[in-house]
Amino acid sequence: MEQPITSVPAQPPKPAIGAANYDASLSRSLGLGGNILITLSSISPASSVFILGGAALTAFGTGVVWGFLIAGVVSILVAFCYAELASAYPVAGGDYSLVSRALGPAFGVVTFFISLVSLPLIVAVFALGVADYLGVAIAGLSPQQTALVVVVLTTVTACFNIRTNAWLTGVFLFIEMAALVLLAVLGFVHMERPVESLFTAQALDPATGTLAPLAISGLMIAVTQGIFAYNGYGGAVYFAEETKNPTKTLARAVICSAAVTIAAEIIPLAAILLGASSQEELFGSALPVEAFLSERAGEAVTMLVLLSVAFAIINAIIAITLQAGRLLYAAARDQALPGRLSLRLRKVSSKGQVPVVATAVMGVFAFAACFVPIDVLLTATGSTLTFSYLFIALAAINHRRTNRNRAGYRMPWWPLPPALCIAALGLVFIVAILDPAQWLSLGISLVFVAAGFTYYFLYLRPRSGTHLLLLDAVIDEENHNA
């Protein structure tokens, strides 16, 4: 039986910070380890290495090391911002919830719009790629039909109890991490060149077929690739109301997830660069990671690893669907949506304490997105991450400025982390503006941003007496645990 929904009075006073206005609806059953398992699963380091890392090797050669190292520094700085905000505002909903509370409802609604669109599209992108890896064992799979089946199965799985999902994603995560360890071992055991060769940024010159120095512009694009490859450590915040002792645990979960992801991706990529018999052939390959694996481990092992990548992608889809459901649930509970719609989407199952309706709706969005061409999906999601990180950095600055005495984690080296984040993201925007190939993606992201501001100022703000009334609310953890 579903839990009753508490109606909101027509004109209540705005609650004070710290007031326990949210009912304890979700199951607080995740520890630090469980949160990290789901968060790492959504990042899927193995998928990032094989897909994004492989593309980066082809385009940027050994510049991948510098690019991913710089991206790792940026990611840790962003993780510090997430950690401080999550510790201060341990509320489900991810970026939307943090930005709404620390930067204001207008920017929060924009962040909601970006996530509402990007999360289902990312699920569709991942699902459409599953057939490529399952195809090594099952020939003739249709990418679209496979994607549709995967989205249905993963959406159903995401409706299970959160603890069950933590164990399930943990098993899949172990398999993909084993594949990354294998890549690293193969590279370091068969080292063909010294470690210092990694720090000379060279890429394949198509005209001559030889290595040539990588331009600074290429290195900057490699940094953006690395930032995208590491993305997802902020996903720990989506499970704030299902994590024990969230004020302390969430900060650790975010920072640990970021650190593990950076190491799990950059070490295998460095090993491949050191262990490939010919860097020219590696960079000239359409699938460099698979080519290296086939060269050093043989076809049978390669097939097993590629199957593990397929499971890693499915694992990521489960984790992202979990996040998407909690995003929509949190927005509905805050009444950032029309009244009747909010009432339905904020419902929680009585047995598993899961926002089943919101999760199913996001699954339907992802299902529909599988009918969109893959290049359109990639374009639509390309620049949204930059805006999300920018809002998180601005939110961290505004939070520290307006809530100096609020309890919680305090990031080191203040105010360098958010300031350097904003500077790095500014460079990313400049690169996008200077590269005509990025204009469409940037334009689509700007449309999402404009739509969010329009929705807030034309619909939500005039209804301030009935909408977005609980943005200062928190969960009473003692009552929640009881």
Automatic annotation (TrEMBL):
GO terms assigned for molecular function: transmembrane transporter activity
The entry's keywords: Cell membrane, Membrane, Transmembrane, Transmembrane helix
According to its UniProt entry, this protein's organism is Paenarthrobacter aurescens (Arthrobacter aurescens)
Q: Where in the cell is it found?
A: Cell membrane
Q: Where are the transmembrane segments?
A: 36-57, 63-85, 106-128, 134-160, 167-191, 211-233, 254-277, 297-320, 354-374, 380-399, 411-433, 439-458
Keyword Hydrolase tagged? no
Membrane topology per the entry is: Multi-pass membrane protein
Q: Name one GO cellular component term.
A: plasma membrane
- The protein in question is named Amino acid transporter
Which InterPro entries does UniProt cross-reference here?
AA/rel_permease1, APC_superfamily
